[in-house]
Every structure is written in C-alpha cells, then in structure tokens.
Amino acid sequence: MGTDSTLAGKEVPIIGTDVFRWIELSVPSSSSNIPTAVDGTNATTIAPPTVDDRASCFVLEDPSAYLIWRIHKLQPHALELLELNASKELPKAGLRFIFPYQLCPFAFVCKNEISRNSRFPYLLYVLTVTGVAYLLKIRNVSAYASSALFPAEDLFELNVCDYVSNHVPITAVTATAGCVVVGRSDGSVCCFRLGVIDTSAPGFVHELRDEAGVSRLWGLMSRGKMVGAVQDMEISELHGKRFVFVLHSDGTLRIWDLSSHSRVFNHTVTGATFRRLWVGQFDPDSSTIPLSILYKHGLDEELEMISLHSIRYNFGERNVFSMDPSVQNITLEEGQCLDVKITLDKIWILKDDELVSHMLTTNVEEVEAFSYALQEEVVADQLFQSSEHQADEILQIACSIFSSSKEDVVPFISSIFLRKLLLPGVHHNAALHATLAEYSRHLPESDLQALTADGLKQEVLSLIEHEVGSEKLSILHSWKCFLTRYFHNWCKNNAIYGLLVDSSTDAVGLIRKSSVSIFRSLEDIERIVEGSSDEVGELTGLVDLLDDDLECEILVELLRCVMSFSQQLGKTASSIFYESVLTAPVISSEDIVHCIVKILETGSCISGPNEKELIDHKSLRKLSAEMFLSLQSLYRKASAWSRILNVIQGFLKFLVPQKIIQNFDTEVSSNINSSIIVHTTYQISKVMFESAWDFLLFLSYLVDIGGQVHLSHDDITKIQLEIVPMLQEIIFEWLIINFFAITPSAPATTEDFNSKLSSLHIDCNTGKQLWNEKLGRRDFTLAFILLLNVRSSSTDHGHLLKRFPNMQSFVNRMRDFISWIIWGQSGGSSNFLSRSIDLAFILFKHGQYEAAEQLLMMAEAHLLKEKTSQSIQESDGGWCIRQHLLGCCLLAQVQCGLHTTQKDNKVFDAIRCFFRSSSGNGASEALQSLSEDVGIPYLGFSGCASTAAWKLQYYQWAMQLFERYSISEGACQFALAALEQVDEAMKDENNPVNGSITTTRGRLWANVFIFALDLGRYYDAYCAIVSNPDEESKYICLRRFIIVLYEQGAIKILCSNKLPLIGLVEKVEQELAWKAERSDISAKPNLYKLLYAFQMHQHNWRRAANYMYMYSTRLRTEAASKDYQGSSLMLQERLNALSAAINSLHLVHPAYAWIDPPANGSSLLGEHYPSKKAKRIPEDHSDNDAEPERWQSCIDVEKLENEFVLTSAEYKLSLVNVKWTFSGKDGALSDLAELLVNNNLYDMAFTILLRFFKGSALKRELERVLSAISLRCCLDKVESTWVEEHGQLVTSSKLEMVVHGSPVTHHTTPQTDGSSCWATLKIYLEKYKEFHGRLPVIVAETLLRADPQIELPLWLVQLFKEGQKERMSGMSGRESNPASLFQLYVSYGRYTEATNLLLECIQSFASVRPADIIRRKRSFAAWFPYTTIERLLYQLEELTRKGHMVEQCDKLKRMLLSSLQNHLKTLKVDSEDAISVSS
Fold first, then answer.
1. Closest by alpha carbon to 340, among 494, 498, 234?
2. Which of 275, 276, 256 is nearest to 264 (CA)?
3. How far is the CA of 428 from the CAs of 293, 389, 685, 1070, in angstroms?
4. Which residues contact 14 (CB under 8 A, 6 or more apart)?
5. What is the pTM of this model?
6. What is the pLDDT of residue 798?
7. In a 3-state reduction of DSSP, which class is residue 884?
C-alpha cells in the first residue's frame, strides 16, 4: 500500500501554555517494606522505569475538561497534572506531584466516581518502580499551596509486592476508575480494587486466569497454557462492562472481563516483536472494536509497523469476541512512534517528526494517509532555519534597498529578527531563558516572563549588540548564531510527548514538554500553496471563478510560476516588506518591490561579488531563464495575455477576505478556543499575505520584462491600473489582520482619579480587574480584544464550545472573525478604510492607543496610494473622523510615560490632526454625529450652523482636551485658533456660544495667558494680558502673572525692557506691593528690591527710596517679633536697604528729597517723626527758620542717615554677639557709645557722638569716651609695662606698681593688647582734640587719677606743649597747655615732673630774643601760676618736715627757688628795659 501522505492540517499552539506556575506537592510514603529479591538483596526496581517522556490526556464529559499528565524522563520522580477547559480561561497554575520513588511510564487520571465528593473531583493512579501503587484524590488547584505536602488523608497507598510471590517483575500496568491492573513477566495479570474496598477485604485482589476457583495469591495453582510476558495492556468499556486487553510478548492477545474475572478472547499473532497496544472506540453500528499493535517485523528490526485489527463482539447470553480476518498494516518509514489514538473512522499516529492519520477502511489496498504540519516546521521557517541562506538574503536585499543610507540597515535587520523571535508560537519562555543563559545572561525565568514585549526586545538587542562589540562579529552572524541556538532550545523544550484526542468532537491535539496545541484543517489557499497546485480543480470556490478547464490549466501553470518565483526571494522579501509597513517607513513599499524585481532581473544584489554571491547570481539567472520559458509556454497555451490576466483577476478574488453575513446575538467570551481562533487567524493571514505578495512581485517582474514575453501596452496598463491596485488592497487587508493577530496589547493605563480608585478595589468589579490583568501580556494580542467584541451566533455556544471542536470548525470560525474585521458586523462596510475607523474606536476604548494610531496611519498611507489623482477627503467626513481619532490616540499616548522627544512629537502630530480634522469636508456633521459610547472624548456640543461657529466650538473642545492632559502647547494653539473665529461666529444669531464677544474673547485670551504662562513664555503671556478686552479678566491675569513670575524666579523680567508696561505701570506696582506686603521677607527673590529696581528703571527715585525704606522697616519688625539666628545678616540687609534709599534720594532735588513714613509702623527714630505730615514750605523760603518744621512729618536724607548710623552700630555689635536695640529713651545714645567702646568699636562710637551730639553735649560725651579708653590703657599698664612703638616714654624710677581702688570693668570680648590700646588712645585723642581742647587734660587726669605714679606717654605730654614753639609763650596757650599739665602733676604728687616742667618752661622763656621782650613780658604775666607754684613749694617743705625723701625734696626746692630767683631777676630787667625803651 502506498505511504505518500497529503497535507491536511496544521498545528495551532495554545498560546500561554508555556508559562504555567507549577505548585509542587510532595507525596508522603507510608510503605516500609521494600521488596527483597530471592538472594536476599534489595530489589528496588520491580516495575519498568521511565526511559522515555510520556504524556496523555483524559477527557471528561461532565464537566467538560481535559486532564493532561506528563512524566519527564529527566524528572522520573515527578508527575505534572494540568486541567484545561476549552470554554474557560487558560489556568495560571498546574500541579506537580513529587513521589519518593521513580515512576513507571504510566498514569491514569479520571473523574472521581467512587465517592462523588465535590471536594475531590479527580482521581490519579500511578505506580512506582518499587511496586507501590498510589491513588491520589485530587482537589481543585486553588486548594493547594506551593511547596506543600500532599495531605495523607487524601492518599491511598498499596505495595503490590505484598501480593506478588517470588517478586516477579511487573512489565505492564493500566487502570480504570476503582481498579489497577498489573501484568508480570510470567504472563500473569492481577487487578486490585484500590480505593473501592479495604485492602484486607475479600475481593480486593483478583488474578485473571483460565481455571475456575478463586485465589488471592498468585502462583498457587496451575494456569494451563503458558504465555509470554505481558507487553502492554489497555482497559476499554463496552455496554457498561469493563474489559482489559492484554498483549503478550509472544503475540498472544487476550481479553478479560473485569466483572467476572474471566477470559473472553484469545488470539495469537506471530512473526514479529510486539511493543505497544492501543484499543479504539467501539462502533455500535458495526459492533467492532478497532485495535492497533505496534511491532517490529522480524526481517527488519529497525522498521516499525502498526497493524490495525477489528474485533467483533456480540453481547447476548454470552459475550462473544472474534477477530476480523482483514488486517490493515501501516509502515512507519522514518521516526519513532510515540503515541497512537484510534477514533471511529481514523487512526492517529504520532511520530517524533510528524503526525499522520489514516482512514479505517476495509479496503486495505487503498488507504490514504494525511499528514499534519508540526510547529517545528513553522518555527524553523520563521527563524530562517529552513535554509542557511535565508538570513543572508535579508542582508543582501536590505543593503540593496538602503544603499543610500547604510546606517539604517543594522536596526532594520534587527527589527525583522526581533519581530520573528517574538511571534506567537515562536516565542517560548523556557527556550528564550535557556538561550540567554548560554550567553551568560542569568535572568530568573519569572522575571523574564514578567517582561513586556518591549522589555524582551531590549534584553535580546542588548545581548546582540554586546556580542557584536566584544567579539567584533557582524550583526548578521550574531543574529544567525542566536536564532540557531534559540531554535535548538525551542525544540528541546517543546519535545513531543503524546496525543490529545476528543472522540466526541474529533478534536486532535498535541502534548509537548512545556506546551499544548490543537490541530486545524487547511484553508483552501494553504492546500494550493503548501500542498499541491494540482488540487486547484478540487477547490469548488476557486473553480467557480473560472470559465472553463483551460483557465483552470492556465491557473495551475501560473501558480507554479509564482511559487517558483517565490521560492527564490519571495519569503525573505515579504519579511522586509512587512517590516517596512509596520515600522516608520524609511523607504516606500513601491521602492522595495522595484528593488527586489531588479535583483531578480539582473541576478545581482550588491557590488563586489564573492564565491557565494556568484552562486546566487547563477541561481537568479537560471530562474530568469526558466521563468522566461514558462511564461512563453503559458502565453502559447492561453494564446493571449488578456486571458491570463483574467485568470489572475479571478484568482485574486479568491484571496479577498470572504464576506460572511450572520445573525449575531451573543458576545464571545475569552477562553482557550478564542486563543486558538486568534492564532489560526494569524496563520491564515500570513499565508494570504505572502500569496498576494508573491503575485505582486510576479506581476511587477512581468511588467518589467513585458517586451520579452509579448506583453502589450494595454496589458501593462491593465496590470498597473486594475490588478496591482487590487493586489495592494488585498495585501493591505491581510497585513492588517496579521498585525492584529501578532501585536501584543498594551498594559492598562491609569490616567485619572477614578482609575486609581479602581486599582484600590474601591467601587470596581472583578471583571474589569481581570481584563486589566490580561492587557499587556504577550499572549494577549489585539485580535483578542477585537474577538471579544464580536457577537457570535448563539448556536456556537452549545456543546461544541465547551470542548475543543473539530479541525474544520476552527477554520470556519476564523473565517467569521476575519469577515467581521474586514466587513463589519453585518458585512455592510464598503471598504476596509471605513471599517478601520470602527476598529480603531474599539482599540481606543480598550486603551490600545498606539495600536489604534498604527492602524489609522497604515490606513492613511494606503489611502494616499489609492487617491493620488484626487482628494483623499471623503464627502461623508470619514477622513475627518480618522484625523480626529488619530489625534485622540496621539494625545492619549502622551499620558503613558513617553520620553521627552517622543512626547513632543506626539503632541505636535496630535495638534496637526485636530486642525486637519476640523477643516475637512463634512467635518461638522461627521464629528458631531459621534456618540459618547465610541470611547473617545465626547465633543458634547451640536447645532453649529456656520463653519466659524463649528470651528470655534471644536477648537474650544480641543483646547479643553489638551488642558485636561496638561499639554499647554496644544491648548494655547487651539485657544488662539478659536479667537480667530469669534467675530465671525458671533455674527450668527443661532450660534451656540453663550456670552458677548467681549466675554468670549476675554475668556479665550485668559486661557492663552494661562497656557503661555505654563510654557514659560512670559512675553506671550503678557501680550495676552494686554490683548484681553475684559478689564476684570485682564487684572486677574496680571495678578496671576506677577505671582507666577515670582514663584518661577523670573520676576526680574518686569525691570527689563522686554515687556511694554504702557498703561499698566501703576497696576503692576500695586500688585507687586501687595505681594511684597504679604510675602515672607526672607523669600527669594525679594519683592522690595524688585520694586526698588522697578522704580529706578522708571526713574522714580523717591518711590524707589520709599520701597527700600519699607523693606528696612519690615526687616526691623521681623527681627523684633522673631528670634532670628542670622540677625547680623538681617542687619546687613537693613543697612543695604537704607543705603539704597539714601542713594535714591540723593538723585532727587534737595527740596523733594523726602519720603513718607510707613503707614503702619515707625522708623527707628520714630519719636521724632509725627504721624501727620505738615504743609510743605516753598523752596524760596528754604533758608528761613521754618526749615526744621518743614521736615517734621517726612523722612528726609538726614533722618535716613541717622537711622543708617544707628543700624550700623547695631550691626557692629551683632558681629561680637552683643544684642542692642535702640529704645529712644534719654541717655540711650550715650549708653550705646559706652557699649561700643567696651567692645573695642571705637570708630562706631565716635561716629555716634559726632552724628547725634552737638556743642557741650558733644564735649561731654567725648570726655566720657576718651576717659573710658584711658582707663583701659591704665589697666593694660598694670598688667604689663607698655613700650611704645618708637620707645618714646617718659621715664620713671618705678617699673611696676600695684593700683588700689582702680575701677573694674567687664568685657564681653577679649581685651586688645597694651600697645594696641595706647595706640588707639593716641589716634583718637589727636583726631578729636580739635572738637574739644581739654581732651588731653581729661585723658591725663584720668590716667593720673587711676594711677598717680603712671608714666604719661611722651606723645601725651607733647600735646600739652603744642603751640609753645615760640619761647615768649611761656606756659600759656590752648586749653591743654603746660600750665594744665603742671597743675595735674602738682595735684597728683608728681613733684619731680612738675619741677622739671616748670624749669623747662622758665628756661625756654629765658632764651627768648631781646626783640620779643615786650610780648614775652605780657604773655608770661598773664599765665604765671602763682598758686600752683606755692603749692609745690609747700608740698616739698611738708615732705622734708616729715622726713620723706628729704634729700630729693631739698634738691628740688633749691633748683626751684634758684630758677625762680633767676626768672624774677629776668623779669625785673625786662621791665626796666621796657620802661627805658618806652621813654
């Protein structure tokens, strides 16, 4: 019999079955008896171990579910259990049972029909290699916690070895509900009613044997004819009875009745090595049971075969089974047989490389085989693993296309590979994790699973870029290596385990290592493209489009040409074309087609050919030659190209998505069947797209070589104007469908407060939460969103939807879905461009803004191709709706966390879209007709009669929309646009705008102001204020303007020439002053300083001074009310403010150099400033006595300077941590001066005296200050002998003295050293003695009073002698003269110094020239201190009398008397001479 198979279906992976979370449950063991061999050693393995991966599926009827179990050969201790329900969501978790011993390659899971307890819906039977059978009562998955221990009360455990003699190995095991059957190597079979009755109860174990009688133990009685070891067993139920089918190694086939424990059938087959046994579903019509046996023929041990048998049964008084003599043998040419399932009419054979089905027929010579494409072939094709040159062709074509921009080649190629890698069915989490691990990217699998599509792209792309950079490999080589490794890991992690067959629906699926899939039938186009073009005549739908058999032959030949053409560059070229459409197009699709056609025509891709490129060149040239001959043959057969083109047009109608009109009344739910429909849609759309693309390439090539194949001008015109546009429309539609099927949905966004409440589970429903959880998953594509919006026929929600339907059902439902996408609910859409609006609305409503944008952009690009010679704006406003919706999509994306550049681009595009939408044909009617239910922001207005009124309302709506999203740029533009429409719109009496023109314009200008201010465009914001006709609104905006400028630190702009403040100067000043009074004084920038600068800029000096004085007053008030740590800084600020005020008033004419005192406060010298201002006196009376009264009520420069001086003193004291505040009381200034002196602030002290004291008061205060300084010097003298800088001191016999009763002063700061103190005294005494002539006397008297024995500095003594340069002066002169010093010496007992001073003066007088006798006599007579000299002589006599310093006193007395006698004689002579001269 023939073995050639026909492709009949394809595998459809259930997306998401690769990311289950497994809940591990450790199964405890209570078995303590380990089987022991005859020789006494432990025989731990008594049952066959798991050497191959095994899996199976149990189909539940009610409730409908599929229980799938898997045992991995690398994890023989574990069993995975997964429950799938076709009408429900894919479960998130499965159960993984960990057993203490390795498992046999067997498990049986079924519905719990023993106890029918809802807590334990399922039962699981397993057997370990140690002979321990387990029965697990399985709860729902949600009842288990991860890494938990399986409850012991839910477990039945049976050690089969306890019932087996001699420990004969177990070779096969099977089970059914309530019964476990084991077969041994000696051919015996035994069944255990595990879980039904107690192990010690009679009837728990039965041996199946021929003899009558009952025995619990095996081997006690003779069994008659010996048979071979049990090879395989399977239990089947017929008419309520259970039968076990047993295959022995010697070919014996037996059937046992489990109810009577008797054998009912025995048959022997010889001549082969038997491996497996499968029993099919019984056929009640023919009373037969199909049965298949896997064996290896004796002549060829490597060749596997399957023999199909039919066992007839007759249930009457006796159960009679008989073997049908006809045997159907199936040879398995290649590959290992993994699993076999038998249904009523087919046998399904799963090998490690393919799935094949055969019809069950009595005609064994004509058995047709059908093959089904596995996912490995699809993944290899998508990852360019089918041919080693496919990836190279992508690079060659890309380099040729991007010849002018080579930098675009690498990102474009990477984009293609990334898209292929993340395709549904290609992307596999475990495979990608293993591949990344090979590149030392050890990302946890859970983290990898949590990544979005963009995150995965970044991860893979960074790996490729690292490989290119570190090893200096080409980008293509890096991608080829990565994809090769990934494909290897994909195959490894998706190894085929077993079949899933639902006989009730004829559904067939595949259980893989880490995924599950379902098979579907082929679509008609797939039969042609992937099957054989000879099947064209069998496709009724296609034949109906052709006129006769000749056209059918033409189509067959034509398809062969196109397929041959496609195999060369078609698949790689379609990937490039697809990527160029979905991404931002660097090059148009027409240019791509032209470039590829040129490559096919010339046979060259890039310059500089190497050996491989020469081979490719030869291949392309060969293709050109063969194509030329084929086209010539086709032309001769058709006799005219017009007929061929008609056939092409007929075939293209076959590629158009079918329009199916049905009555829909039920919403489609999200379930596993929906996932299969979506992926089926992707597979079909891919084939359709590539088929249409191949024809487009073929026709483009045909036009290019038209002259060589007799193509006329009319034929070329028909191709270009009729067929190519039709093809482009088909390509566009299938590309859109493909886009929906493979593009992951975007995560749900939370934009407003209501959404945040929803995330907190406040006032929200569970359905919406589940929906939001799905959004953003890689397996939840856009097609799911669209599918869930389809309303399907209620008949679809019957029995079939609860299960996996048959293969053709998926194709039929896929056609319905595609028809809904392209043609709409009732098939009423005239073209897909109008339909794209409805789909975009759906996507937008579900938060898929970027996808909706891409859809609309692709529709727009396609529309531009179609309407190059006419307007692209439809009369029904469809173009306007697309632009409006596109703007909404762009605007919504801005809220999703885009980068700054992307965000700005989206905003500008959205603005452009809204402007275009408002100005299109029929915009008003179309956009106002949109209901609130479509999902986009609702316009909320209607009834706009005129175009201006419509635009005014629309622009205001757009303005509010941008404002809602905090996008001031767009809001500002639409506010300005609305302003342009106000005047014309208001002319219409029926306009829907409320308010007058002034109010409307004022509101819009206020909005412009707000948006410009938000954007930091202060000039534009100010212009909006000036332009606002509403005065109230204008001033409100002005206040807001100043507040924002202040908060943004841009308030200084008011003092520049950038803003024309004409007419608003006073208002601006008023607002600034109001703001300054209510702002924190320490805030930056300082508004008082700004007001000062503002007034200075306006040349308003007095007001500038006024604000700075107000600032100073605020500072003083704040300092008094608060405990400022930085008081010195605040005082410095006050000084600066007062200084600025003084400088400003100096710029004013003296007659007007005054400011008003603060209204709510007083100045520092407030007691001198009346609260009421007196009448100003004219300038011409300024020199009369009324001048002081003129300034009583104002603060003039003098008063400001006085306050400046006092503040300076306060500042100086603050620097030495002395706090002082002027109280205004009598004596406060004197106390201040003293405080300054005590803190060594002498300059400041003298400044205070000279500023605030005059006349005798000034002299008195100077005496006090210098006396205080003198006392400080006196104290320093006591501590250490002071040596003057130049060593000029009056000598003294005593170097050190102790002063008793000297005043004690307390200092807040450390005293200066002695030299500094004496130098300070000298400086200030010499500086200020002109103000008071007796200051040296006061200083000397202070020093002598403090210390009578002190040595007066030479410079101080010299001050008394100043003015005595003329000898005739004697001891007279200024207030501080030698006589004053002489009196001080005598008064304080300094007799020696007094005598010396007197002798010095007398000697000086005696040396006067004779010409000055008259003047000398007069002056000396006026000065001579008789009393003091007498006192001196008296004191000397007293000392002598008392015996104190007798010798020294006598000496001084003699010197004094001698000098006086000589002096008197001189006076006598001078008198006589004067008389003589006068006479």
1. 498
2. 256
3. 35, 24, 22, 71
4. 84, 90, 515, 516, 517, 518, 672, 675, 676, 679
5. 0.76
6. 44
7. helix
Distance of alpha carbon 919 from alpha carbon 923, whole angstroms: 7
pLDDT by residue (tens digit) across 699-739?
988 888 888 888 899 999 999 999 999 999 999 999 999 99
Predicted confidence at residue 112, as pLDDT, reads: 87
Using alpha carbons, select from 214, 212, 1317 the residue that is nearest to residue 204.
214
Average pLDDT over residues 250-259: 91
Q: Which amino acid appears at position 274 of this protein?
A: F
CA angle 1244, 1248, 1249 (to 5 degrees): 120
d(CA 516, CA 1152): 98
Which H or E run includes 756? helix 753-759
Q: Which residues pair with 297 in a beta bridge?
A: 272
List 342's β-bridge partners, or say none.
347
> Rounded to whole angstroms, what are the CA distances from 1245 to 1082, 1212, 1237?
30, 10, 6
Distance CA 88, CA 1242 (A): 97
Q: What's the N-to-C CA distance of the chain in angstroms?
A: 185
Mean pLDDT of the chain: 80
Helices (H), 1280-1412: 1314-1328, 1335-1346, 1354-1361, 1378-1387, 1391-1406
Query: What is the DSSP track for 1160-1179?
Result: T---TTGGGS-SSPPPPPPG
Q: ω into residue 1085 within 30 of 0, thus cis?
A: yes
Q: By three-state DSSP, how is residue 265 classified? A: strand
pLDDT tens across 962-1013, in order? 998 889 999 999 999 999 988 888 776 666 666 678 888 999 999 999 999 9
Are 259 and 242 a contacting pair, CB within 8 Å? Answer: yes
In this model, does residue 930 exceed pLDDT 70?
yes
Could you give the CA distance from residue 627 to residue 558 in angstroms, rounded to a whole number? 11
Question: What does 111-128 look like in DSSP terms, one character per residue?
Answer: E--SS--TT--EEEEEEE
For residue 717, what are the CA distances in angstroms to 590, 696, 702?
Answer: 17, 15, 12
Nearest to 866 by CA among 885, 883, 879: 879
User: How do residues 631-674 score in pLDDT, each as one tens digit?
Assistant: 888 888 888 898 889 989 888 888 888 888 766 555 667 789 99
How far CA 605 is from CA of 398, 585, 1064, 1229, in Å, comes to 9, 21, 72, 101
Looking at residue 1232, its pLDDT comes to 86
- Here the tokens at position 1036 are 């409100």
> In sequence order, what are the beta bridge partners of 293?
277, 307
- pLDDT beyond 80 at 33: no
The label of the residue with tokens 């339907």 reads 805
Residue given tokens 């997306």 in the structure block: 15
Angle at 642 between CA 638 and CA 645, to 5 degrees: 90
Q: Is the pLDDT of residue 1434 over 80?
A: yes
Whether the link from the prior residue into 63 is cis, omega within 30° of 0, is yes
Local structure of 834: helix, strand or coil: helix
Q: What is the pLDDT of residue 1416?
A: 52
Count of all residues that appear for the chain in the document: 1479
Q: Residues with Cβ < 8 Å from 1248, sequence gap 6 or more?
A: 1205, 1206, 1209, 1229, 1232, 1233, 1236
| Integer angstrom CA distances of residue 764 from 756, 759, 761 | 10, 8, 6
Cα gap 390→396, rounded to integer Å: 10
Buried b / exposed e along 827-850 (16+ C-beta atoms within 10 A): eebeebbbbbbebbbbbbebbbbb
Q: Which two tokens stand for residue 887?
A: 């703007």
| Secondary structure of residue 748 in the 3-state scheme | coil
Pair 756, 602: CB distance under 8 Å: no
Q: Which of 65, 104, 64, 97 is nearest to 81 (CA)?
A: 97
